[in-house]
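Deliverable D4.2, example record:
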Amino acid sequence: MVATSVGLASLQIATRGKPVEYTFIKDIPREEARSYYLWFAELIQKNYQGYTNQQVESENEEEA
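Output generated by the structure prediction step:
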């Protein structure tokens, strides 16, 4: 693939809503794609960490 040999990458983003929607970002610099991915991963971790902790605490309370 020509894009990867010159340091380009593509991203595919999917929503989790109904209906699922897809967005494609093609042929951006590999480092920019990596930067976006890391930013998004951090955002998801921050936003859902509280939810996950609440869910675990709730399940522990139900078991007690």
